[in-house]
Recover the amino acids of this structure.
């Protein structure tokens, strides 16, 4: 029983925590372990995603755990696992732009064909060059989109106009940054409040 509890605690300590800068912009993802250390040292505060109230370590451990909240028990203390922390002193900006990669393209286009709007698994989508490669089209954010099997076959080596297809939006470099490119299962639901770029799926990147 004790061993199981230790494994669970180790897993929770390795879980991802979103880090915001002083201006509440997401800049980083760290582990719960590091997040708690930063808060304990006083260089960060924990944000309650529900109320947006911020807490130092002492205040946080005095918070009663809501039903269903993940907690770490140590002798004498029960700590609710933080999901988002706020840096107190630094105001650095996200460090990188999203590099153009296949994986990032899937994230940008949200596994959705940019011609017909059909959502599909990765195996049923391919990377389409809007201006065909055979006609000098570049492989970059501005010229590549996801296309489903049907739209891809129809488009072939044609321009969208020639193929009678219309892009749902002009492709561009996404505004979110690579540290947020975690698998959906690693991302916490509460982060969507702090990462607006990932929320605007319908009309914006
Ligand atoms: Zn399609």
């Amino acid at each position: 029983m004790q061993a199981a509890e230790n494994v669970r605690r180790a897993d929770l300590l390795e879980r991802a925590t979103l880090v915001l800068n002083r201006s509440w912009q997401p800049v980083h993802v760290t582990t719960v372990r590091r997040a708690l250390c930063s808060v304990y040292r006083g260089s960060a505060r924990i944000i309650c995603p529900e109320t947006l109230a911020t807490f130092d370590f002492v205040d946080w451990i005095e918070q009663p755990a809501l039903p269903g909240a993940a907690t770490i028990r140590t002798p004498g203390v029960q700590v609710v696992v933080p999901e988002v922390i706020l840096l107190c002193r630094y105001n650095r900006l996200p460090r990188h732009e999203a590099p153009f990669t296949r994986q990032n393209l899937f994230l940008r286009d949200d596994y959705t064909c940019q011609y017909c709007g059909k959502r599909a698994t990765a195996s049923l989508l391919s990377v389409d060059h809007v201006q065909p490669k055979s006609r000098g089209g570049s492989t970059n954010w501005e010229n590549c989109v996801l296309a489903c099997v049907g739209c891809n076959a129809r488009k072939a080596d044609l321009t969208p106009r020639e193929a009678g297809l219309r892009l749902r939006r002009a492709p561009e470099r996404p505004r979110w940054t690579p540290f947020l490119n975690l698998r959906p299962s690693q991302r916490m639901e509460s982060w969507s409040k702090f990462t607006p770029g990932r929320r605007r799926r319908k009309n914006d990147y």
